[in-house]
Amino acid sequence: RSNDLEEAARKIGKIPDDSIVIIDGLALAPLAESVEKHSKRLLVVGLVHHPLAEETGLIAAQKSQFQIRERRALGACTHVIVTSSTTAATLTRDYGVPRKNIDVIEPGVGEMPISVGSGTSSLSLLCVGTLTPRKGHKVLLTALASLRRFPWTLTCVGDLGRDKQTSMCVQNYAAKLGILNRTCFVGTLSTSKMVGVFRCTDLFVLASYYEGYGMAIAEALASGIPVVATGVGAVPVT
């Protein structure tokens, strides 16, 4: 929102000279002008999970605008931290960030209880991801609809309100495919509830179009749950 960006820009302007300022990748492109303006007096560090231009569903003009603004902001950063070697390679190849200016710090995963599975004859599938176009829920549902002759249930965990249009579209699509009765959209869950969900899961599934790092995949693997996912972005190296 414009008011939030203006407030953030004002706060950056008040930060004392030679301070280290870490800016999340979600804010880098919108704050490109401020990053450039203060890059001579501040040590700006960008924290990038994946370039915003990699989001699914952008029209060509939006994608181009994100690329231009992210390239400007990243060029003004003293250093960049990324969550995977895949993102590091992307920033060097497509955004001109020198590799020596990038550090890869993968998110850590705490100790997770090992899954005991559902203990039923029906395969308990779990998908974790905000309902946005990039997460590919419709791809997953299409694949599962072709497997309706097998016993399975799918639990989708993830924010249903960030992109309400996509959320409604995905749920309507499950109904259209005739698998809504086997698919449960539970929204966002607390950490303690997620531990319980992981513990009773037989298989983790994710059909994303792009991932800067597969955090949910890492948590599933730490829980001893096998994973079936699209081999995109940093998924193969998670």
TrEMBL record:
Gene3D superfamilies named in the record: Glycogen Phosphorylase B (3.40.50.2000)
Record-linked Pfam families: Glyco_transf_4, Glycos_transf_1
Tagged with keyword Membrane: no
Signal peptide: none
CDD domains: GT4_PimA-like (cd03801)
Molecular function as annotated in GO: glycosyltransferase activity
Keyword Transmembrane helix belongs to the record: no
GO BP annotations, alphabetical order: lipopolysaccharide biosynthetic process
Keywords per UniProt: Transferase
Glycosyltransferase subfamily 4-like N-terminal domain sequence ranges: 41-109
Domain Glycosyl transferase family: 124-236
PANTHER family reported for this sequence: GLYCOSYLTRANSFERASE WBBK-RELATED
Name of the protein described by the UniProt record: Glycosyl transferase family 1 domain-containing protein
Lineage of origin: unclassified sequences, metagenomes, ecological metagenomes
